[in-house]
Amino acid sequence: DQLNILRKTYEVELPNPTDESTFNYAWGLLRSPNKKDTETGLRMLQSLKAKGPSNFDRDIVYHLAIGHLRLGSYTEAKKYAEVLLRQEPNNGQALSLKRHIERKVRDEGMVGMALVGGAVAAGAFVLAKLMSKR
Q: What local confidence, expressed as pLDDT, does residue 115 receive?
């Protein structure tokens, strides 16, 4: 499969893989349904970013946002989307990503509020039953 091809290309170049093969393998890991793969891909991208400017800077930042989004780290995901938008305010891909992140935060916040509301209602019901037995 594609991830294995990217991994093999990366491993052949060890101990000094090119930025391109590192980025490509990290990209493949981010697409994996496995959480550990996503975390590994993020670490690889962060190490590429820490190396300094490269031809992949924009793509690294975008995929850091994607990886954090996939892990549910919405604050980090939004931070990276905003970095892109500061550099390219009219970047449609970054604008769309930021909106998607904000929508996920809002939707999960509503689910959380509904769960808390349900728990409070259930607690009130139990308390009312206990009080009525006295």
A: 52
Specify whether the CB–CB gap between 80 and 48 falls below 8 A. Answer: no
Q: Which helix (H) or strand (E) holds 123?
A: helix 92-132
pLDDT at 14: 97
What global pTM score does this model have? 0.80
Alpha carbon 4 to its chain centroid, in Å, reads 22
Tell me: the pLDDT tens digits for 81-134?
Answer: 999 999 999 999 999 999 999 998 888 875 455 555 555 555 555 666 677 766
| Cα atoms in the 13 Å half-sphere on the side-chain side of 17 | 19
User: Please, is 34 exposed, middle or buried when counting C-beta atoms within 10 Å of its C-beta (0-12, 13-18, 19+)?
Assistant: exposed
SS (H, E, C) 27-64: HHHHHCCCHHHHHHHHHHHHHHHHCCCCCCHHHHHHHH
Residues in the chain, total? 134
Residue 82: which residues within 8 A CB-CB, separation 6 or more? Answer: 98
Distance, in Å, from the CA atom of 78 to the CA atom of 129, rounded to the nearest integer, reads: 45
